[in-house]
Design goal:
five-stranded antiparallel β-sheet, 335 residues, Chorismate synthase, AroC fold
Length: 335
Amino acid sequence: MPGNSFGQMFRITTFGESHGEALGVVIDGMPGNLVVNLDDLRKELKRRAPGQHKVHTSRTEADEPEILSGVFENRTLGTPITVIVRNTNQKSSDYNELKDSYRPGHADRTTSQKFGIRDHRGGGRASGRETLARVIAGYFAGLILKNVSVYAYIEQVGPHKLKTAPADHKVDRGEINIPDAEMTKSVVDFLEDCKARGESAGGIIALSVRNCPESLGEPVFDKLKSDLAKAMLSLPACVAFGLGEGFNFANLLGSEISSDPRAFGGMEGGISNGEEIHLKVAFKAPSTIGEKAKAGRHDPCVLPRAVPVVEAMAKIVLADHLLRQNSYLAFSSFR
């Protein structure tokens, strides 16, 4: 089956290309009678939208959502929801030089090898612009999660690292999703320099989930950690996932792990235990650099705009597993 769908009971299918007419998502499994606020959806999309900051790509898009089905009088119907966002600022000529060449680290070559054809304009289906569909789905997933709080932020960009993690989910993340004003300034200066030189940078996004219900996760292949890892690694430029202590587990003794309940990242055996979930994801530097970066419209670093996408994917996974867990409870009540 083509890999454009994700989830079981809360299932999404995204569609569209970076320079096509529109991109969008179909959401199946959404419960009915939940209130939809279009302004809140717009706010989520704006957090991801390009062209809002000098360290973003110069492409500007309004990213106005159009709900085509599944919502009536601002309430979900329980039927499939379809939302599209029309592209309005394509400049496909910027990518003419890439038509007959492949960018290393992109899906250019592999897409051509797989399908015998590719849309070279802005990366086509493999573009980071596809993630706006995930943000839309994440908004609707959030309606299911109610009191669950999902909060992501940039922990590192290139050599610049956050000294202290934010104390709670109300800490202001500033203009580029870094919860520290001093680091924000340093990173903005760093990325401006990268952009001017046609250079790029990677980094790490941290995410935590508070008030997560316990018992989410399905042994053995659909563990909550497994689906979160798949969700994050499906994102463009995401190259690593770590739960709790992540790769640092290799450095810890059993006695050290047992004395720190946070080490497990809010899960045991891949099932949520009701404690705070915390994870980290690493993103590589964009591969388009040098003159090719200057010729097109590219982000020197994907992290500032990836934060809301990481949150959205976490919400999608949690909503899916919450509905699955509730199906067990509903079945038990009929026994």
